[in-house]
Amino acid sequence: MRNQALVLFYLWISNFFDWTFFTFAFSSRGAALDALHPCYPFIQSNLTPVAFPIFLPSLPVMASVTLLTVWASPFSMRAKLALLLKGIEHEDLPQDLGNKSKLLLESNPVHKKIPVLIHKGKPVSESVIIVHYIDEVWPETSPLLPQDAFLRAKHRFWTDFIDKKIFDSLAQFMRSSDGGAAVNEEFIQNCMLLEGALAELGSEEDGPFFGGASMSFLDVMLAPYSVLIPGVEQVMGLKPASPEQCPRLHKLFGAVAEHPSAKAALPQIEKLKEFIQAHFARK
Ligand SMILES: N[C@@H](CCC(=O)N[C@@H](CS)C(=O)NCC(=O)O)C(=O)O
């Protein structure tokens, strides 16, 4: 009876704290006061405040946005870049794909792949879906998808093309045992198709990206290739499309290399080359 009364008291008090937190959070002075709130660590970590007095010493504090990553994965790079472009505070949890963590297996039980974005305890998988999610949940800063529905469809179409054609021809080249000349040619043709999309969708006057002066959804999808292509070229002899064949793509990759968020989200080419050498180079 006494225990039941205690539990009820905790429930009541935590609801009260929750209510006051949200009242503050959405007021103009609220943001500054949030950190003073006794339940702030729980709200940040998505642990219910009911547990506050009981479990505080034993609970791990997890950030409200966590990214399960592998630094060399182009798919992880996309998610990381979207978070950085939008200035979203987050924590990276690097994963060992040779020994998958319980957290990864539970967060992405279908594919068991990185990246996984965990937001307020809820996991979102697949890089394209993650970047969509980030853009929808944090729409104010650096909007990625265009307002216009037709242009959004175009971004989705070319994203699908990047994953099905550009990535696949690059992966086939890396796996080929005959030097990969035929698939290399296919890769160049695919890059030229993408060049056409860039000329159609991105105004050169506005800037180098699909989004003009700032990165858009398609730029985030494509950015990892600015390190991946030179990496595979320098380690495995891929022949990339020339600046004459793809002038806009070359400018876009140059601009990605200079972009502060991309610099932080993408690995150094030298480091990536070591990874490619160790994992893919033909013996
Ligand atoms: N379509 C997925 C691909 C993700 C993916 O292939 N991740 C790889 C690393 S680059 C992975 O986790 N592989 C682990 C496995 O296949 O077991 C996405 O866009 O996120």
Description:
With 283 residues, the chain is α+β, with helices and mostly antiparallel strands. The protein folds into 3 domains: 2-55; 65-137, Glutaredoxin (3-Layer(aba) Sandwich), CATH 3.40.30; 149-279, Glutathione S-transferase Yfyf (Class Pi), Chain A, domain 2. The chain contains 14 helices and 4 strands. The protein has helices at 2-25, 30-34, 40-45, 52-55, 74-85, 102-107, 127-137, 149-175, 181-201, 217-222, 225-236, 247-258, 260-265, 269-279, and strands at residues 65-69, 91-94, 116-119, 122-125. A 4-stranded mixed β-sheet has the order 2-1-3-4, covered by helices on one side. A hairpin with a 2-residue loop joins strand 3 (116-119) and strand 4 (122-125). Bound molecules: glutathione. The site of glutathione has 11 residues, from helix 7.
**Cofactors and ligands:** glutathione
Helix-strand sequence: HHHHEHEHEEHHHHHHHH
Computed structural class: alpha+beta
| Backbone shape | globular
What is the CA-atom radius of gyration, in angstroms?
23 Å
* DSSP summary, beta strand count: 4
| CATH top level assignment of the largest domain | Mainly Alpha
Average predicted confidence as pLDDT: 86
User: Do you know the CATH topology of the largest domain?
Assistant: Glutathione S-transferase Yfyf (Class Pi), Chain A, domain 2
How large a portion of the residues is in β-strands, by DSSP E? Answer: 5-15%
**Major β-sheet strand ordering:** 2-1-3-4
Share of helical residues: 55-70%
